[in-house]
Amino acid sequence: MSLLPADTDAAPVPQPPSSPGNPACVITCAAYDQAGKRHDLTLDQISDVLATDDGSFVWVGLYEPHRDVLLKLQEEFCLHDLAIEDASKAHQRPKLEAYGQSLFLAMHTVQVIDEKIRYGETQAFLGARYLITVRHGASLSYTPARLRIEREPDLLKLGPAYCLYTVLDFIVDNYMPIIEGARDTLFSLERDIFSETYKGAIVRRLYDLKRELTLMRVAVGPLQDVLNHLVRTQSPLVPEEIRLYMRDVHDHALRVNDGIDTLREMLGTALSVNLSLVTLGQGETVKRLGAWAALLAAPTLMTSWYGMNFEGMPELHTRLGYPVLIGAMVVVCGVLYGLFKRARWL
Asked: Cα–Cα distance between 124 and 146 in angstroms, integer?
């Protein structure tokens, strides 16, 4: 997997069909009875379900909803104005807030599209008899999470808090393949990292990897605090049985965070090692050039000495002057070559 900088102008993420009878932004709107059976609803039918306290609850899933849809849900579930304002706008920091008889969560999601990491956001409203999930940007559909709970009707009796657990578990688990892809990419670059030849493309890929992991660290770090609060909360909206499941998700988030930190450290080390090896290689090249320059300088000096065209130089009229000069240059160059070879400059 090639991990490159996220593109803010990403193509729209394909979404599943909307719930029948509802606006296109409503992906699902269903009620689950005590037996765990699903009943599809329209937004106008939600109030009828909530009017009867028979142990059922409602799950509404939205993708980039229009404000009028959020206002409709606010009317149906009596949601707080500030929570609706947060849900209508993305770019929220991961957080957990209590508004009267409901909890509001904001979480970052991640998805790989066209070999690039894209970031999205999910907000969730948790009440005694409802769960509302609002997705923005790059985010996989929570249909697998819904199918998972529908296969476990006994756990559905735990209510909407268990559905929230499946969503959180789904979000955290989606980080793991990306981290594994980054690790595989780093391992595949090891041969080029330890090369003494400078390759700008390798340095850029290492930097891109570290940049993406830093962005993921920003998303995962605050999520640990959110999950920790859910584990320790005394809110009746999160029963004791659900806190055990939340603890498992928190452990997964810790493992993801540790994996990100480890990879970031390895990438920083790889960049330093690559730079050091390139510097050492350049130093060796400079030494070789210096040695050859010295070898060429010695005969150049000797021949230039006798190229001054003076009449009074005694060696000019010696019969063996030329062979002696050639021999002297050979001896000097041989001695210098031996010294440089011994010093490993050649």
From this structure: 15
